[in-house]
Amino acid sequence: MLLKGYKFTVGMCLADTDDIGDVLPYLNATFRGCMYNHNEQVLTLKKDGRQITFRPKEIAITKLENENKAREILDWLKNLINKTYDNHKNIKPKLDSWLILTPLSLSGSLPGEKCKDCSGKDCYGFAQKLIVGEVNIVQCKPLFTSEFREKRKKVLGLLEQAGYNVPGESF
Ligand code: SF4
């Protein structure tokens, strides 16, 4: 067990921990969308509207309502850190940040057909839903036609860099 316990103060919760620096690249590999600075050993992820920042001997959590919530999240993190550490030999460490997608950056690479058959009002609406996982890229039918081969390559590449599952070569 890497992390045995923590001490904390609520407000923006700041917890003192054992040294968890070694596990940060493995946590980064496990959580899509993390910001990670390997040299500085700072990992930040967003969960349920909160920002959680890990440093080797500190975890900071924003937007905590009370002490019970702080304990609940810290216990979950403790479990996550220890499980990741125990399993780290099976995880390829990730030493850089994930690409952060925005609807604007993604929609510019979609076909722009305004076909409305993808559960979005348009490509921008589809990109919004895609980022939060409400739709799948394969629902954009035009993207998977030969006409949009180059755009498809670009969009799938962006999604992959951001940690999303993308369809294989059969597409
Ligand atoms: S199906 Fe694709 S091209 Fe058509 S509106 Fe939706 S995202 Fe845009």
Describe the structure.
This protein has 171 residues and is of the alpha+beta class. The protein folds into two domains: 6-90, TATA-Binding Protein (2-Layer Sandwich), CATH 3.30.310; 103-161, 3-methyladenine DNA Glycosylase II, Chain A, domain 3, CATH 1.10.15. 32% of the residues lie in helices and 16% in strands. The chain contains five helices and six strands; from the N terminus they run ββαββββαααα. It has helices spanning 24-30, 67-86, 103-107, 123-131, 149-161, and strands at 6-9, 13-17, 35-37, 42-47, 50-55, 58-61. The longest helix is centred in the middle third of the chain and has 20 residues, at 67-86. It starts with 5 loop residues before the first strand and ends in a 10-residue tail after the last helix. It binds iron/sulfur cluster. Iron/sulfur cluster binds next to helix 4.
**Rg from Cα:** 19 Å
Write down how many β-strands occur, each being a DSSP E stretch of 2 or more residues: 6
Distance between the termini: 43 Å
Q: What CATH architecture label of the largest domain applies?
A: 2-Layer Sandwich
What is the CATH C level class of the largest domain, in words?
Alpha Beta
CATH topology of the largest domain: TATA-Binding Protein
Number of domains: 2
Low-confidence stretches: none
Instruction: Write out the distinct hetero groups bound to the structure.
Output: iron/sulfur cluster
Structural class: alpha+beta
Helix percent reads 25-40%
| Silhouette | elongated
Q: How are helices and strands ordered from N to C?
A: EEHEEEEHHHH
Spatial strand arrangement across the major sheet: 1-2-6-5-4-3
Strand fraction band?
Answer: 15-25%
* Mean pLDDT across residues: 87
Sheet with most strands: 6 strands, antiparallel
